[in-house]
UniProtKB/TrEMBL annotation:
Domain of life: Bacteria
Domain HTH gntR-type: 12-80
SUPFAM superfamilies hit by this protein: Winged helix' DNA-binding domain
Pfam families, sorted: GntR
Gene3D superfamilies, per database record: Winged helix-like DNA-binding domain superfamily/Winged helix DNA-binding domain
Name this protein carries in UniProt: GntR family transcriptional regulator
CDD domains from the UniProt entry: WHTH_GntR
Keywords: DNA-binding, Transcription, Transcription regulation
Database matches in InterPro entries: Tscrpt_reg_HTH_GntR, WH-like_DNA-bd_sf, WH_DNA-bd_sf
Organism for this UniProt entry: Asanoa iriomotensis
PANTHER family the UniProt entry points to: GNTR-FAMILY TRANSCRIPTIONAL REGULATOR (PTHR38445:SF7), HTH-TYPE TRANSCRIPTIONAL REPRESSOR YTRA (PTHR38445)
Amino acid sequence: MIEFHLDGRSGVAPYMQLIQQVRQAMRLGLLREGDRLPTIKDVVAKLTINPNTVLKAYRELEYEGLVTARPGVGTFIARTLNEEAAAVEPLREELRGWLRRARAAGLDPESIEALFATTFRAQLQESA
């Protein structure tokens, strides 16, 4: 099951952060068809946010056809976004190694994230 977290400094609305986290988990194969999302009550308790925020995120995911709400039962993943499942795990292991090397080199989490994001964007521009 997914564990949500919110970043108040991101500038992204909380409901969008929840949506993005579900999509990411689906792409990475962490959430698969039939998996149950945490209840709205559980998310509200863990993140101390308004229930309408979670409801809005879940409704948007349902509108996109990614989840199905079953009243009284829960919200479930309706389909997958992970077409490259076989390629993901080896890449994740390589990335974990890179992250360990970055930490060993003395980079803090914010510096690692900045390095990754800028390098990623530059690579996308080169490829275009």
